[in-house]
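During the second year of the project, the team shifted from modelling isolated chains to modelling whole assemblies. The rationale, set out in the original proposal, was that interfaces cannot be judged from single-chain predictions alone. As a representative example for this report, we include one of the complexes processed in the last quarter. Its constituent sequences, exactly as entered into the pipeline, are reproduced here:
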Amino acid sequence: MTSAWDAWWSEHHPPQFPTDSYLELEESMPKDEPLVYVPPTPDIPPLPILHGLSLTIHERLKYMETQAAVFKVTLRLHGQQKWAILKVYHSDDPQNTEGGPLLPGREIFNRESQAYANFIQYGLCRDGVVPHCYGIVGFPGYDLIQLETTAEDEDMFGPFRHDNNPPIALLLEYMDGMKCLKLLDLTENLGNEILKQAVRIHEAHVLHDDLEPRNILVGADGRVVIIDFGSSASYPDPIATPPFFRAEYRGLWRKLFIRMLPDKERILRGEEPWDIISVHAL
Ligand SMILES: Nc1ncnc2c1ncn2[C@@H]1O[C@H](COP(=O)(O)OP(=O)(O)O)[C@@H](O)[C@H]1O
Ligand SMILES: [Mg+2]
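Output from the structure prediction step:
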């Protein structure tokens, strides 16, 4: 059966590559997003708060001062062990704003936790558009979870131990075997898959606002999972609405089909990429 998406796509099919004509490509950019807009459900349940977890930190995947850290952990539950992601956010107001104001960790947590509450409500975790979110982990006195760390040389949780206000965390599904979108892996099909997932996110009344290759995970089978909702806005934020969804959709289309794919073709021809986003995704 042909879905509404397929019908829509066949009308707005992207041009064939390679081509260097930016103008020609701009003309083929879809005017609209294939969004099925259903008015938002009021009173979306908040994320559950998790108590008494047993976690071991294995690796710190990323740390941003005053903001958040992303840890790869093992979670022991009902006698079983599984990988998970623990994203821990500072709650203190940032002291050091050198280099411009940063979004405080607490604000990033608010945005990301609201986005995941929406995703659970609208079935995006169930459908694998985004990771599962198991819930919120609090740290009063760090006694809610048993935090062990496997690294001998470094206290990976160190940057949080001296905060005035206890940090707060989200426990997320670890997307095993998936890696950030790489320029040379991008194809038209993969680009279309990424766009589909972005539309699902918009249908959950969330504007991602940071749809960069590093926040798009791709599996060997071409599966696409979107992560990192730290910059996102959810209803009733006025930017979590169809005009802004459409702008984000068109921006993503442009990024994938006008900026990145022609750069991939250039590289395959032995030329230099033109766009900085392509260089970052090498
Ligand atoms: N659920 C996940 N499964 C696997 N890897 C992840 C997951 N979440 C984050 N990562 C890895 O950690 C990196 C940083 O996570 P992200 O949520 O993007 O943090 P930040 O907001 O600091 O950019 C990602 O680019 C990805 O490589
Ligand atoms: Mg990120």
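The domain at 49-173 is CATH 3.30.200 (Phosphorylase Kinase; domain 1). Residues 61-62, 64, 68, 70, 85, 87, 131, 172-175, 180, 214-215, 227-228, 230 surround adenosine-5'-diphosphate (ligand 1) (CB under 6 Å).
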